Structures are given as C-alpha cells and as structure tokens.
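Cross-check.
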Amino acid sequence: MPTKKNNFEEQLNSLEKIVTNLENGNVPLEDALKEFQEGVKISRELDKKLTSAEETVAKLIDSDGTEHKLDPNNAAAPED
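Predicted model, tokenized:
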C-alpha cells in the first residue's frame, strides 16, 4: 500500500483498510507483517498531522495580529 498520500482522509481510509484486513485474519503472515508496518507508518504520519492541527487551533490571534497560545487548563484564557 502506498504511503505517499498527503490527504488526511485518504491516509485514514488506508489505515482503516489495513486494520480491517488484519482483523479478518485472512492475510498470510508475511503480508500481515508488511501491512502492519505500513499501518504503523501511516499512523505516525496521521499523528504528526493531528498534532500540527491542534497546535494551530490552540493559538488565538488578536485583531492586531498578535498570537497567544491557549492555556491548556483554561480554554477561555490565553497564556501571556
């Protein structure tokens, strides 16, 4: 399975297919190992994309363009 997909949804669909194949158990061991490795690789790529998106969402931008990160303990109050 190719891993050069940049689209989050496409990568997630690929990962779901791998999981389904492995759960069904109808995959020869050698192929299952390859699919598992591919799934781990895709999972790590998706995790990086989600972390990046979370960091972007966690920033508040004032009207003057100043960025403030959200306080993780109080979403209503930005960090100074």
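Strands lie at 59-61, 67-71, 74-78. Residues 15 and 43 are 7 Å apart (CA to CA). Passed to J.P. for a second look.
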